[in-house]
Design goal:
Largest sheet: 4 strands, antiparallel
Helix content: under 10%
Oligomer: single chain
Radius of gyration: 18 Å
Length: 250
């Protein structure tokens, strides 16, 4: 089992991953995070960002292959959020930004291939296509290399799961009073999940047979709390924090 994230070293966040509980720190100077992790054969890939080294303010989208870092956005600020392998091709999604605009981007084999004004937060494969999930402007959306599906709400699309011909997207919608509602879309139709507070969001989603699982967070006072939904029923998890991913075996 491989887990990606970060640890605090001398007060600074340092990108790290764990293999069966054994920690590997992806050493460098500056601040860094791992947002996603994947294996391709025997190679371990982590994706995230590096802010620094000390004395600089550039936040560079980065991937690590077997602990060696490679910058994806040396010319601009950015972060890498998701990784997907399709045969001999490697897709990494994320975001780059400047004072002028934010752009969602996908790097295919290290080269930038697709841009949107917004962000690309997750990737998925079906039997026949590659799917990208994120925001186009302020609107949640998902798309393939040929077709865009705008989800026709104000909010965020954070995650995706594909089951047969059905496409599930997790995220949230934002009301006119600026409250956030955890939702999922099935083939573009939105379903609101039970909201434990005035703020909740789906950050990861999975489908196993007839069962749908969503994970994320809700706000209690000024504190984020983790939660998961099983077929629409909310389950609060202990402690403070957020849950970003879920994987289900049958």
């Amino acid at each position: 089992m491989y887990v990606g994230g970060y640890v605090n070293v001398s007060g600074l966040a340092q990108a790290a991953y764990w293999k069966n509980g054994q920690q590997v720190i992806l050493g460098h100077s500056g601040i860094s995070h791992v947002f996603s992790i994947g294996l391709n054969g025997s190679d371990v890939y982590c994706v995230g960002d590096i802010l620094g080294p000390s004395g600089t303010i550039t936040d560079s989208a980065t991937y690590w292959k077997n602990s060696v870092p490679y910058q994806l956005s040396p010319e601009s600020n950015g972060k890498a959020l998701s990784i997907l392998f399709a045969g001999t091709e490697t897709y990494i999604s994320g975001q780059v930004w400047s004072s002028a605009s934010d752009s969602g981007v996908v790097w295919k084999n290290g080269d930038k291939n697709w841009y949107v004004i917004g962000s690309v937060n997750a990737l998925a494969l079906s039997q026949t296509d590659t799917f990208f999930v994120g925001n186009v402007g302020n609107a949640p959306a998902y798309w393939t290399q040929s077709v865009l599906h705008n989800l026709n709400t104000i909010g965020f699309a954070t995650s995706i799961a594909i089951s047969g011909a059905d496409v599930y997207v997790g995220g949230d919608t934002i009301s006119s009073s600026n409250t956030y509602q955890a939702v999922y879309w099935k083939n573009d139709a939105v379903t609101a999940l039970k909201n434990p507070s005035m703020y909740s969001s789906v950050l990861g989603i999975a489908v196993a047979g007839p069962d749908l699982y969503a994970v994320g967070d809700y706000l209690e006072g000024n504190t984020y709390k983790p939660a998961y939904w099983e077929n629409g029923t909310v389950n609060k998890l202990s402690d403070n924090g957020e849950v970003f991913a879920v994987f289900v075996t049958q």
